[in-house]
Amino acid sequence: MAQSKDFYAVLGVSASASQDEIKKQYRKLAKKFHPDANQGEAKAAERFKEISEAYTVLGDEAKRKQYDEMRRLGAFSGFGGGGPARRGPSPGASRDAAGGIHFEDFDIGGLGGLGEMFASMFGGGARQGGASRSRQAERGQSVEVSLEVPFRVAALGGKVPVTLEVNEECPTCHGSGAAPGASFKICPECSGRGVVSFGQGGFAVNRPCPMCLGRGQIPTERCPTCNGAGETRARRTVNITVPPGTDTGTRVRLSGQGGKGQNGGPPGDLLITFQVAPDRFFGREGLDVIAHVPLNIAQATLGSKVRLKTLGGKWVKITIPKGTPSGKRFRVRGQGIEKDGEHGDMIVEVSIVVPETLSPEQEEMLKQFAASGGLKY
Fold first, then answer.
1. For residue range 15-65, what is the model confidence (pLDDT) as tens digits?
2. The domain spanning residue 327 has which CATH number?
3. Stretch 251-261: mean pLDDT, rounded?
4. Domain membership of residue 297 as a residue range
C-alpha cells in the first residue's frame, strides 16, 4: 500500500523543529513554488499544494501536537506512521466512492471517535461530491510574546504596554480578498467546495483549498492591500497587568487578546512570558529584596548610620556596628516582596570600598594607623 506523506519531510524539517523554524521553512518554500511565480508549471503547483497541506497542520501548534500524537499512536501505520499496522478501517470509519477512508468517524481500539480531532487538524468538509461548503468559523491565532519588565514593577506589580503584531481583517476588502468592484468566480481548484482532498495512503483527508483559501470562489482581481489573503498584519498596543512578585519565566494568559477570529470565530489568546530586568540597586532572593550598600573603611571600622529607601519608597535607618566586615547582612523585616499573602524582608548587604587614590595627608595618616597596630597584615 502507498506510503503516506510525512509532513515534516514535505517541509524538509526535523520532527523536533521549532515553530519558528517550520514557519521560516514554509515561507521559503511557498515563495519558491507559489503558482504566481511558476505560471503553467504543474509540478510547482503540485509542490505548492503539498507544502500548504503540511503547513496547515505543522504551522498550528495545537494541530501539530494532535498530528504527532496520532503518529505516536500508530494511526498512520502502514502509511508512513510509527506503530503497529492496521489491516483495514477502524469500526465506524466510512469510505467515499473512491474507496478512501474519511476521518470523521475513525476509531482506534477503545480511544473513541476521533472525528473531532481530525476535523480540527485537517479542516474536514462535506463528503458529498460537488456540494457547496460554507466557511467554518475559526479561532484567531494565539500570540506568544516575551516581555521585559522593570525590577520594581515586577516586584510591586503594575501595568506595562506591549505592542503586538497580529492578523486582522483587511480594511480594504473586509476579508473577501477581492479588490473594490471585482466580481467572483468559482474556484477551479476545488470546484467551489472550498476544500480539496488528498490521499493519506488509504485515507481521504480534506483541507482548505490553497487557491481560494477555503472560500470556494476567487476574485477576478485581488485586493491590492492584502493580495487576496483577506487579512493583514496589524500592530496593536495592549496594557499588560504585571502581578506583584512576578519573576523571570512567569507566564500569564490573556483570553481573547490574540488574533481576530475568522468567519465569526472567537479571537485567540495572548501568552506573555515575563523577563525581569536587573535593577542598579536591588536584587532578589525569593520574596526577600537585597540592597547592596557600599561603606568606606572609616564607616566599617568606626561604625556609622546609613539611611536608605525601601522598595516601596519608605526611608529606613541602618546602624552599622564598629568593625563590620564586608558582606555583613542586616535584615529589615516586612520590607520585601508581598505575594499570595506572604511578605519578604529587605536584606541590606554591605561591602567595603577601598579608595583608589589618597592624598599625601591621607596616606600618611593611614601609615600611622597601620604602625600603631590598627591594621594587621
1. 889 998 999 999 899 888 887 778 778 888 888 888 988 888 898 888 888
2. 2.60.260.20
3. 80
4. 282-371
350 is a domain residue: yes
Contact 207, 170 (CB under 8 A): no
Q: Cite the beta strand spans of 215-345 per DSSP E.
A: 217-219, 231-242, 251-254, 270-276, 282-285, 288-295, 304-309, 315-320, 329-332, 338-339, 342-343
Establish if 345 belongs to a structural domain: yes
In a domain, 313, yes or no: yes
Predicted TM-score of the model (pTM) = 0.48
- Percentage of the chain modeled with pLDDT above 90: 21
Give the span between the Cα atoms of 55 and 22, in whole angstroms.
Answer: 8
CA distance 204 to 92: 15
Asked, for residue 315, whether it belongs to a domain, the answer is yes
Q: How many residues does the chain have?
A: 377
Backbone angles phi, psi at 134, to 5 degrees: -75, 150
Q: How many CB atoms lie within 10 A of CB 223?
A: 23
Short-list 220, 230, 75, 225, CA closest to 138: 230
| Structural domain total, the chain | 1
Instruction: Please report the pLDDT score of residue 124 as a whole number.
Output: 44
